[in-house]
């Protein structure tokens, strides 16, 4: 059974205000009648921009985990801690829950986001009919967890404020936090640049129903 989509009917949703309008195919300068934004059937160069941001984030993911996140100096000791060394410290100190939270938010989640976005881009670029509904849910999951990606940066900022106020030591943010923050920002922008409608463009109705079975 064939269903008529908005794209087939010549309708397009405004990327700015969401208004559904009719776009004239021969007029490339068609604009939204409500906010005057340019109308496009799909986000312009969505896959190319998403791939570029993903590659940059993947490159920065390495120094984000190897460079120190913070430097601690006191009267007796001076040390630098990476994300993993912080996880190990919390684990050996008996703070297993905190170690699990930091490991999940700072190492596991960014890596899984990179893999998931790469999978979405690859399958969309190939026009794959593989499980479109599950891939759409995966995209929405990436958007949902993106707001928690800066947890590790917030933890470091909180520790710096608390320790410096109590004058127990001096804590300074390390270069790793810049790389980590860049990874978070780049993956968030990449998820915004990806157009999930590309998942469905090559899906036929029979493939959709097979996916539901």
Automatic annotation (TrEMBL):
UniProt keyword Nucleotide-binding present: no
Keywords: Cell inner membrane, Cell membrane, Membrane, Transmembrane, Transmembrane helix
GO cellular component annotations of the record: plasma membrane
Localisation: Cell inner membrane
Cited InterPro entries: PqiA-like, PqiA-PqiB_transport
Keyword ATP-binding: no
Pfam families from the UniProt entry: PqiA (PF04403)
Principal location listed in the UniProt entry: membrane
Transmembrane spans: 47-67, 98-123, 144-163, 169-192
Annotated signal sequence range: none
Entry-linked PANTHER family: INTERMEMBRANE TRANSPORT PROTEIN PQIA, INTERMEMBRANE TRANSPORT PROTEIN PQIB-RELATED
Protein name per Swiss-Prot or TrEMBL: Paraquat-inducible protein A
Species name: Pandoraea terrae
Lineage: Bacteria, Pseudomonadati, Pseudomonadota, Betaproteobacteria, Burkholderiales
């Amino acid at each position: 059974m064939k269903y008529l989509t908005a794209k087939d009917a010549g309708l397009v949703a405004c990327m700015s205000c969401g208004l559904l309008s009719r776009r004239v195919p021969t007029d490339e300068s068609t604009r939204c009648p409500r906010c005057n934004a340019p109308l496009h059937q799909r986000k312009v160069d969505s896959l190319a921009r998403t791939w570029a941001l993903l590659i940059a984030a993947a490159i920065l993911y390495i120094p984000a985990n190897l460079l120190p996140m913070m430097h601690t100096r006191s009267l007796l000791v001076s040390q630098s801690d990476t994300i993993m060394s912080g996880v190990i410290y919390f684990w050996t100190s008996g703070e297993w829950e905190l170690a699990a939270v930091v490991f999940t938010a700072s190492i596991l989640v960014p890596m899984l986001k990179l893999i998931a976005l790469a999978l979405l881009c690859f399958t969309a670029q190939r026009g794959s009919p593989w499980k479109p509904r599950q891939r759409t849910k995966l995209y929405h999951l990436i958007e949902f967890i993106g707001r928690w990606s800066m947890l590790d940066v917030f933890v470091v900022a909180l520790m710096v404020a608390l320790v410096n106020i109590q004058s127990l030591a001096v804590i300074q943010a390390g270069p790793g936090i810049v790389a980590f923050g860049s990874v978070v920002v780049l993956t968030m922008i990449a998820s915004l640049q990806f157009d999930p409608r590309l998942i469905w463009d090559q899906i036929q109705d029979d493939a959709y129903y097979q996916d539901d079975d």
